[in-house]
Specification:
- By secondary structure, the protein is mostly helical.
- It has helices at about 1-25, 55-60, 75-95, 100-120, 125-140, 145-155, 155-165, 170-210, 220-245.
- The chain is built from nine helices and no strands.
- Helix 1 (about 1-25) runs antiparallel to helix 3, helix 1 packs parallel to helix 4 and helix 8 crosses helix 9 (about 220-245).
- The protein starts with a helix and ends with a helix.
Length: about 250
């Protein structure tokens, strides 16, 4: 029975990924998300419903437009597949529980934040608010008032200082405040740790490959999102492993 539910969840999250792909494509260009039908970027052909089935349509069409036969960018399908895999993974990791459902939804929001921040260098306040609301609900449901409220400020306050010094964006501050409410003090510290490590490593690679200079701005949100996802799925086990070393 659980397998059927997880399969159904995979399909739902693939559809959510399709919407995230639309946001990733249209928002940076200043286009309306809900206005206008999807179309081929090469020939302008309006896509029919069966050409818009997440993941499946791309496979059936062999990655080509049915009219002009030009290759369709794999980006949207990659977003659909990634969202479906990661969100379903969060649900499987925590089971069919309130926390499992909450974390799978948050995963979708984190993917949206990561993609758009990478492309626009901005994090939507609405996305952070959604995470905060889910975190507030879990805090009340689990009764974790002290860890959650402490987690809200323990990373976001230092980040706020960095933001005031123009070393970080305010979007990162709001994101980590929301993640702190969701994961508590231990979870958000772990999320920030992995985010900083992965972000620093990525920045170093960009410098080595001469993609960006050391003083160039980079989107930090995607790495914080990766850290948050790692903490959501493996936080308790990683913390227990670390403490077992002492």
């Amino acid at each position: 029975m659980n397998l059927v539910i997880y399969a159904f969840a995979f399909v739902i999250f693939a559809c959510v990924g399709s919407f995230i792909g639309v946001c990733y494509d249209r928002i940076p260009r200043g286009e309306q998300i809900f206005a206008g039908r999807s179309h081929c970027d090469t020939c302008g052909k309006t896509l029919s419903p069966w050409e818009l089935i997440p993941i499946v349509s791309y496979v059936l069409l062999w990655g080509k437009c049915r009219k002009c036969r030009k290759h369709i960018p794999f980006t949207s399908t990659a977003i659909e597949l990634t969202t479906a895999v990661l969100a379903t993974g969060a649900l499987i990791a925590h089971g069919l529980t309130v926390q499992g459902v909450a974390f799978s939804i948050v995963t979708c929001v984190l993917i949206e934040i990561a993609l758009l921040d990478y492309k626009t260098m901005e994090i939507s306040d609405i996305a952070s608010i959604i995470i905060a609301v889910i975190g507030l609900g879990l805090m009340i449901y689990n009764g974790t008032y002290v860890p959650s409220l402490t987690g809200t400020v323990c990373v976001s306050v230092p980040f706020l200082v960095l933001a005031l010094l123009k070393m970080m964006g305010m979007g990162d501050v709001k994101l980590m405040a929301a993640v702190g409410l969701l994961l508590g003090i231990k979870g958000v510290l772990l999320a920030a740790f992995f985010g900083i490590i992965i972000g620093s490593f990525a920045a170093a690679i960009m410098k080595i490959k001469n993609l960006r200079g050391w003083k160039s701005e980079i989107a930090f949100g995607p790495y914080l999102c990766i850290g948050s996802y790692i903490s959501m799925l493996f936080g308790e086990k990683l913390i227990a492993l670390y403490l077992s070393l002492f």
